[in-house]
Amino acid sequence: MAETVEITMQLAEGMHFVGTNAAGLTVHLDSPTMGGGAGASPVQLLLMSLAGCSGMDVMAIMRKKRQDVQALAVFAHGVRGEAYPKPFTSIQLEYRFTGTGLNGDACERAIGLSRDTYCPIWAMLRPTVEISFTYTITEPS
């Protein structure tokens, strides 16, 4: 059965909107040029959604592989087109793993599984946006 996802997006003031999900959790959005800085822009939130979605997948997979990931940061660098509506033309994801004895092949495989199988945000963007990734592994100090 298909899953239905519902949210409410309510104008707070100016260009500041507050999104609320069924559990009552909120996200604030605002315009970087016409707003008051009360939240991320919708474009920034899309990058956050991609990085967060993939990061969650990668962590779940690495835990199943019994890899000792102590920290993971995912940086997203998006390039937008010049003409309106200025969609993303490319996105570079940079995964920074910290852990003891992490296997590079396991890291790369986890990211690949997120890309190819698990992350719905990546799947929705893939047909129109070139998305690439890199990763680094650092031993804890």
Query: How many H/I helical runs?
Result: 3
CATH superfamily of the largest domain: K homology (KH) domain
Measured between the Cα atoms of the first and last residue, the distance is 47 Å
Which architecture of the largest domain per CATH? 2-Layer Sandwich
CATH topology of the largest domain: GMP Synthetase, Chain A, domain 3
Radius of gyration: 17 Å
Q: What's the SSE pattern?
A: EEEHEEHHE
Classify the helix fraction into a percent range. Answer: 25-40%
Give a count of the beta strands, DSSP E runs of length 2 or more: 6
Widest β-sheet, arrangement of strands: 1-2-3
Structural class: alpha+beta
- Sum up the overall morphology in one term: globular
Q: How many domains comprise the coordinates?
A: 2
Average pLDDT for all residues:
97
Strand % is 35-45%
Low-pLDDT parts are none
CATH class call of the largest domain: Alpha Beta
Mind describing the biggest β-sheet?
3 strands, antiparallel
Structural description of this entry:
With 141 residues, the chain is an alpha+beta fold. It folds into two domains: 1-40; 42-138, GMP Synthetase, Chain A, domain 3. 31% of the residues lie in helices and 35% in strands. It has helices at residues 42-64, 104-118, 120-125, and strands at 7-13, 16-21, 26-29, 69-80, 88-99, 130-138. Helix 1 crosses helix 2. The protein is globular, with a radius of gyration of 17 Å. The relative contact order is 0.15.
